[in-house]
Design a protein that fits this description.
By secondary structure, the chain is mostly beta strands. It has one helix and six strands, in the order H-E-E-E-E-E-E. The protein is 4% helix and 17% strand. The strands form two sheets. A four-stranded mixed β-sheet has the order 5-4-1-6, with no helix packed on it. The longest helix is centred in the N-terminal third of the chain and has 4 residues.
Amino acid sequence: LGLYARYYDNAREVTWPVGSLKPTGPGFYDLHGNVHEFCQPIGHFGRNEYDIRRFDEEPGEPYTVTETSCIPIRGGSIYSRAILTRCSAERYVAPDSAREFAGFRLAHNH
């Protein structure tokens, strides 16, 4: 894992430039670790763990973020232990919060 991802054991609590480690087989850099990635909420928890909100059942309806919504982040960060540095490990943050350990993945199709 340490060859492909920055996480608690090797990041020294500092975010690193993309591409500072080896790419995955398909050529993706920093797919795990470094910073959590914001993800599209499919079903998520509100700030109250019992306040569960989901997409409207109608296909094609946009998801609306509310004041009590939380946005899922995945992939682990510089503060994550190795076991949580994976795409299935999900945390939630308020949409109006700023975190140094969460961001977006930009992709370019040639």
